[in-house]
Amino acid sequence: MIEKSAQPVSFYRRSDLRPGDSGEALEAFESLPTTAGPWSPGAQHGGPPAALLARAVERLPAADHGRIGRFTMELLGPVPVGPVAVSARVVRPGRSVQLAAAELHDLARDRVAATAAAWLFPRTPGPGVGPGPLPHTPADGAEHPRPPAWHGGYLDAIEWRWVSGGLEVPGTGVVWMRPPALVEGEPLSPVQRLLACVDSASGASAALDVREWGFLNTELTVHVLREPAGEWVCLDAETTLSDGSVGVATSAAYDERGLVARSAQALLVVPRSVSR
Questions:
Q1: Which residues constitute the domain of residue 242?
Q2: 276 within domain boundaries
């Protein structure tokens, strides 16, 4: 058993509630330094925004009897480490499945920085089949120091236990992750915990030197087979590159009971001198 270590309090702190232009309520948040990604201290890692968009969906009345079975986030540009707000709505109601949409707003620049679409599936019993537990647990993983070329923030906020690979090791990676709270004073929901982690697949399986290459994802798609249990999420991640600017990072995500989700990210692969 791994003891809980002292972690940063959260990724976000609640701010005020602002009315949206179309009449919906935008719930505003202060983005804390823990959200900063590996490329710049001023731009967020994709994990916290994904989890915050999922939180907005989960707070819809439609989610009272449904759960997120597929989640897709589109990153329309860098999400700043600054004031943000989220809103969500149902765009396709239904008796069995419903489609929800969410937006994350950059309040300082008055723009939409990210959107999400989430299919809500009913909470009904299934066949109860699927891959069993992994042959390792978080206790079997090792801590690695963060490579100097990677910025802190999110990377320092997460607890990492590496079974194979590492941020400093090119190639595939298998790592257990434990994130801090998403919003200060709130418990993480299972799907929020999953989404706070799976956007790390491209880093866990980094195939290029971050000092020379950028490989930023423009989107994240996650198929959630079941909601994860416990505090830890394991990613078995792989990045595939070609001779162009498009790459793809995929992962199988596990909890200590077995497989919970599969994810994919389209990557913009460019020299660091080329801006997004």
A1: 10-122+137-271
A2: no
The residue-averaged pLDDT of 22-40 equals 87
Decide if 95 is inside a domain: yes
CATH number at residue 214: 2.40.160.210
3-state secondary structure at position 202: helix
Q: Quick check: helix, strand or coil at residue 30?
A: strand
Q: How far apart are CA 133 and CA 172, in angstroms?
A: 20
**pLDDT at 100 (0 to 100):** 97
Residue 27 contacts residue 7 (beta carbons within 8 Å): no
Asked if pLDDT for residue 276 goes beyond 60, the answer is no
In a domain, 231, yes or no: yes
Give yes or no for a contact between 256 and 221, defined as CB atoms under 8 angstroms apart.
Answer: no
Decide: pTM greater than 0.90: yes
pLDDT exceeds 90 at position 217: yes
Which DSSP helix (H) or strand (E) runs through 90?
strand 83-92
Kindly provide the residue ranges of all beta strands, DSSP E only, lying in 96-143, ordered along the sequence: 98-106, 111-122
Q: Please give the pLDDT value at position 260.
A: 97
